Amino acid sequence: MKQEIKIIGIDDAPFSFGQKKVAVIGVVIRGNAYIEGILKAEIEVDGCDATAIIINLINGTRHKKQLKVIMLDGISLGGFNVVDIQELHKSTGLPVITITREQPDFIKIKNALQKHFVDWKKRWDTILEGNLRQVNGKYPLYVQYVGITFPTVREIISLCTIRGAIPEPIRIAHLIATGITLGESHGRA
Predict the structure, then answer these.
(1) What residues have CB less than 8 Å from 67, skipping those under 6 apart?
(2) Of 17, 157, 10, the residue nearest 75 (C-alpha)
(3) What's the predicted TM-score (pTM) here?
(4) Neighbours of 139 (CB within 10 A)
(5) Is 3.30.420.40 the CATH classification of the domain at 6-182?
(6) pLDDT reported for residue 1
(7) What residue ranges do the domains of the chain occupy?
């Protein structure tokens, strides 16, 4: 695999549940170090538009032709605005990898969806579509992926992780998202 593979890492900004919209930041990065571009869009908090917005963001960027992978900080953004990674892959032609630090508590997630959403079943089914696997490195990560093999997922994560657990495309997207929202970046991606 090329050391300078171009990846877009996407994370949402901090938000409160009283907000209607939340910023979503995409960082186009070459390998693990060189930032090629920053993209921004907005999605509804707990809405159903994340998949379509991200598809438009990626398909509309001048960086699209060079992108090889989409990385998301989790399967949902802006609360429970669940990203359909199958549709994202199909509509962009790019492999998709979601990254989380901790193994999802599926019972807790399902209960929250049932409690708060009329369309909970659709969101739940979308969450379960991706293969959930643990990636063991210096720190364990949990990934869902489509359009790519698990060995390649591990290789890409290893390639673009400098320190800690989180790959640089996600870590940098998180820093930018928190910085533009709160005035200073902080927290863990």
Answers:
(1) 6, 7, 8, 28, 58, 61, 94
(2) 10
(3) 0.94
(4) 11
(5) no
(6) 63
(7) 6-182
